[in-house]
Amino acid sequence: MILKIIPGGAFVENTYIIQSDKSKELILIDPGSQTDEIEESLAELEFDSVHIWNTHGHLDHAYGVDYFKKKYGAKFSIHEKEIPILQAMSTAASRFGIPEFNNAVIPEIEKFIEENREYSVGNLKFNTILVPGHSPGSICFHFTKELNPEEELVENFIICGDTVFAGSVGRVDLTGGTNMEELVGNITEKLLSLEDSTILFPGHGPRTTIQIEKESNPYLSGMF
């Protein structure tokens, strides 16, 4: 499996590229405004098609969606509850007043992501986990690879968007946010209940693990 992390843009948002070693299809998760850097990473890969899957619809995670849809004929998938968040992209761009977000285009959606489902793209399989709080349709993508009992589980990670970060959790005061109690409750129920060794790749900042966040995240420690 190929996993590339491309941080960039005014909010240093993490865009992810995931591709199976045996497939010419790849998944582009949360393409932000750092389109040049994303293109540089794509240029290093061999692929025939691009599938865009978003954890949520905030401007810094979705600004590049329309660009990559048009360039690669990519199909765009997101949870249905994120429609109002996408529709607020232009308003958010005006509020932040950051030049790189000018001319934000609301992308057309081809498919709505459902929660608690297994999806396949190329040879990649992953499960979806709905974790509302930061936004109503925030989705986490859980990738695992089952190996023989004698072997170690080498691929067990979650692309978790802005639900949880290393040492923090997502804001709830942005478009579509609810309250901290709901967010922390959903993180506790739906993410912290997974294997401690599960790696978390957030929408901003470095990777972490469920065990680390249980033990040291000030918002989550003591929940278990």
Summarize this structure briefly.
With 224 residues, the chain is of the alpha/beta class.
Q: At the first level of CATH, what is the class?
A: Alpha Beta
Strand order of the largest sheet: 1-2-3-4-5-6
- Helix-strand makeup class: alpha/beta
Q: How many domains, in number, for the residues?
A: 1
Computed over alpha carbons, the radius of gyration is: 17 Å
Low-pLDDT sequence parts: none
CATH architecture: 4-Layer Sandwich
Instruction: Write down how many β-strands occur, each being a DSSP E stretch of 2 or more residues.
Output: 14
Tell me, rounded to a whole number, the average pLDDT: 90
N-to-C CA distance? 32 Å
Biggest beta sheet attributes = 6 strands, mixed
| SSE string | EEEHEHHEHHEEEEEEEHEEH
State the share of residues found in helices, binned by percent: 10-25%
Overall geometric form: globular
Strand content: 25-35%
